[in-house]
Amino acid sequence: VEIAAKAIAKGMSEYKELADRQFIYMKDYVVAGDGVEAAIYEDGVAIVGNFSDTDKIYNGHTVPAGDYIII
């Protein structure tokens, strides 16, 4: 039960951080290669996902393997 509660809390924290994106127009979606993809929003924010098993660099930012960053 404790593990499930931690997973739920993590998911809610991630949702809270990204919730405002649903109201902002996504102006571009970039498939950068090597498993890196980025959603670019009209306010200049990018959510960059790394779908590979190794850390990657996107525009000077490290994107951990199997994770995402917001820049």
Key words describing this protein structure:
71 residues, 1 helix, two-stranded antiparallel sheet, single chain
Please give a structural write-up.
- The chain has 71 residues and is an alpha+beta fold.
- 24% of the residues lie in helices and 39% in strands.
- It contains 1 helix and 6 strands, in the order H-E-E-E-E-E-E.
- It has one helix at residues 2-18; strands spanning 26-33, 36-41, 46-50, 56-58, 61-63, 68-70.
- The strands form 2 sheets. The protein has a 4-stranded antiparallel sheet, with no helix packed on it. It has a two-stranded antiparallel sheet with strand order 4-5.
- The longest helix has 17 residues, at 2-18.
- The model has no long low-confidence stretch (mean pLDDT 92).
